[in-house]
Write a structure and sequence with these properties.
Elements: H1 2-35, E1 42-52, E2 66-77, E3 82-91, E4 108-115, H2 122-129, H3 132-141, E5 145-151, E6 154-162, E7 168-173, E8 179-188, E9 192-206, E10 209-219, E11 222-234, E12 265-268, E13 271-274, E14 280-285, E15 288-292, H4 298-311, E16 317-321, H5 327-330, H6 333-338, E17 342-346, H7 347-356, H8 367-371, E18 376-380, E19 383-387, E20 392-397, E21 408-412, E22 417-420, H9 436-448, E23 454-457, E24 465-466, H10 467-473
Parallel strand pairs: 15-16, 16-17, 17-18, 22-23
Antiparallel strand pairs: 1-2, 1-11, 2-3, 3-4, 5-6, 6-7, 7-8, 8-9, 9-10, 10-11, 12-13, 13-14, 14-15, 19-20, 20-21, 21-22, 23-24
Helix pairs in contact: 1-3
Length: about 475
């Protein structure tokens, strides 16, 4: 009896799943037909809007910095899974506030080709799947399910399937059978399982294809892209080819993997420069190792930790200095926390780190989520001196920084070295205009009357940088 009952229950569950899957296919088909997507192979759309630099905010509570996109033209080949984007970008924050390539002088032209393939990381493939038509294709190919949900008091049919990273991908269908929203979650080294959301509204008919004339994408709770669409051309001839001599395109930016470390440099007894695209400095203190900066990624942080322990054996990593909270300078901090290190940072960051580091990291568990160690902090405002009676590291707040409100730099008086991030990123262009970041850094150094002869940028240029180079870049020589 029990076996027959169990078998009957299993059969009913299977039939219910099959019916749900069939219903999902029906809903997807109805939405595709209503949107004119049944025979949509390619599309070209244009307009104007904004893009925003994820993780580069002026302070922990402000939105990601904005760049204006006065012209935006994109062609997508859905069958080939390829995209060609041409846009013009201009400064959106006036005055510039935050990071991500600011200040942008004049117009920046971008011509970007991306051809996706099965090896393309899921987070990048989402660039197409988060669009209504890409979502419908992906959902139709998956074991999608449907349910009814309310959002902002309005009822939606929600189509869901599981992404390659095991997170749900949800598409919200309104009462007109239009995709109003697509959402999913992706891993972020700072924020953990981060919500990635896209809202679509103000649909209009373009040659039989319903297309939203307003698009808004968010990551981490703030906008990352917004577009007002003015023209749409369905099923255009799209011959998207990778330009000769170029690899697969895609979004660039700080914090990407692949930085190759070079040989460490001894700055003085017990003080070492650990070079790489994102550098760090290790100091042998009496009770443990002090590391200046935990940047880029967990992978890079673990390289720094390993190298610091090799150079300074038989001591724990006791402290890590965080210059500021931009993601490319904070994405390795959790690895240091897992080591038991105390994070030394500006006071505006403490509550922020405590909050975001408590977020789930289920999509890509890291060292801290496995270790379950509670973060420890030491904070500062304008100045903090770290010394064991032999080595001295002085930390200073960068006043009037337009890059980050909590920016700090390190000064090693015995070595006459400044260790800084983003206030002076070396540009090998003698004709480059004077950067206000450089000017402000020099003004801070002069105000503090610091005796230095060398700069170590965290974005390390692979060579020694003298004081004179900073002064020249700031228009002081």
């Amino acid at each position: 009896m029990f076996k027959r009952g169990f078998a009957a229950a299993a059969l009913l569950a299977l039939l219910a799943w099959a019916a749900g899957a069939q219903d999902a296919k029906t809903v997807i088909g109805n939405v595709s037909k209503a949107m004119g997507a049944d025979n949509l192979k390619t599309i070209e759309y244009s307009g104007s809007g904004s893009d925003f630099s994820l993780g580069q905010a002026m302070n922990p509570s402000s939105p990601w910095p904005r760049f204006a996109d006065p012209s935006y033209d994109r062609t997508i080949d859905f069958d080939k899974e390829a995209s060609h984007l041409v846009r013009t970008r201009t400064q959106g924050e006036n005055p510039p506030r935050g990071g991500g390539g600011q200040p942008l002088v004049g117009e920046q032209k971008q011509d970007q080709v991306v051809i996706f393939n099965p090896q393309t990381p899921w987070a990048q493939r989402l660039d197409l799947i988060m669009l209504p038509w890409g979502f419908l294709r992906a959902a139709n190919a998956a074991n999608a399910t449907i349910e009814t949900k309310k959002m902002n008091g309005k009822k939606y049919t929600v189509i869901s399937f599981e992404g390659q990273n095991k997170a749900k991908v949800n598409g919200y269908v309104d009462d007109q059978n239009m995709i109003a929203r697509v959402e999913t979650w992706i891993d972020n080294a700072v924020l953990g399982d981060m919500l990635y959301e896209a809202d679509y509204s103000d649909y209009k008919d373009f040659s039989g294809v319903k297309f939203p004339t307003h698009m808004l994408q968010k990551q981490g709770g703030f906008p990352t892209f917004e577009l007002t669409v003015t023209d749409v051309k369905p099923n255009v001839t799209a011959s998207i080819q990778q330009p000769e001599g170029r690899g697969r395109g895609g979004r660039g930016g700080p914090g990407g993997p692949g930085a190759v470390s070079t040989e460490p440099e001894k700055l003085s007894d017990g003080v070492y420069l650990l070079p790489g695209a994102y550098a760090a400095v290790a100091v042998d203190m009496k009770d443990g190792i002090l590391v200046i900066e935990g940047p880029q990624s967990e992978e890079r942080a673990l390289q720094i930790i390993s190298e610091a322990k090799r150079l300074i054996p038989n001591k724990p990593i006791k402290w890590v200095v965080n210059t500021h909270n931009h993601f490319d300078h904070a994405s390795g901090l959790r690895a240091f926390v897992a080591e038991g290190a105390t994070v030394i940072t500006h006071q505006i960051n403490k509550s922020y780190y405590e909050k975001v580091w408590s977020n789930p990291h289920t999509l890509n568990p890291d060292k801290l989520s496995e270790a379950k160690v509670k973060p420890k902090f030491e904070t500062m405002t304008e100045k903090k001196v770290l010394t064991d009676g032999n080595h001295v590291v002085e930390l200073y707040h960068v006043k009037n920084s337009t890059h980050n409100d909590g920016m700090i730099f390190a000064y090693l008086p015995k070595e006459k070295v400044i260790v800084e991030a983003d206030e002076f990123n070396v540009v090998n262009n003698p004709n480059a205009p004077v950067n206000p970041y450089h000017v402000n850094l020099v003004e801070n150094l002069e105000r503090l009357n610091l005796d230095y002869d060398r700069i170590i940028p965290i974005h390390y240029p692979g060579r020694r940088v003298e004081k004179a180079e900073l002064l020249k870049a700031a228009g002081k020589q």
